[in-house]
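Quick start: read one record
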Amino acid sequence: MTAAYLSHFGLTLAPFSKEIADADLWLPSSKAALVEELCEALRQHQSVVLTGEPGVGKTCVLRALRHRLPHSGFRLTYCHNATLGRRDFYRQLCLALGLKPSATAAAVFYAVATHVEQLGQERTHPVFLLDESHLLHQDVLDHLHILLNYHWDSQALLSLVLVGLPELEGRLARRHNRSLYSRLHTRLHLSPLSPEDTAEYLRVRLAHAGCERELFASDAVAMLHEAANGALRDMDRLATAALREAARKKKKLVERDTLARVLDSGSHED
């Protein structure tokens, strides 16, 4: 990592890196409310679908959930490889759960289902977080509702959290997937940041890096918000590039013309 721009602005660490502890994640009030709604759904042992455009902070929400949900009583398992067929999907789940995957699809499903029941006996509620769920194979979607069925569908021993792009909602709403969709009682959508959220986000992340003064002019903040479309991932990338460009020009403030050069030159690549 280039340290020149950090020393130029008196920063102790890269302010817009994704390498930040769960406890230090910032969420605007609207997203904090969404996390609380997600937590409450899991406390009620419900299953959830969470959608949002790329880069708006879906994984940040999951990390905030991991931080806020009590460790006692819940066991979260995160899976992000959604491009597998049904057998390999369950083998992936086995590995994530610390189980030895078997050879057949029926055996790996049985291993996962048995593990879920054992956790229930231990009064621990398992939560499977399935990221990139818009990419799930249809044969996996066809089977997930069966994974939620325990004791004649009389006990909610498992919660699924399906996370993906907005088209996931459309896939789930198809008649073919109604058995699964009807079991996803909580349906949440994550919107991009508002202009006010963007300004607060910049301040909070810069303060976390050791800077309490404004480093972005107000018109630069507005331009950054528009260029990133309120998406956190693009905002991090562009803000970092703008700080580097300002440091190269020996400026102590990122102004609109600095950000414009970043956008025009394409120098904001990762």
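Strands lie at 48-52, 74-79, 125-130, 159-164, 186-190.
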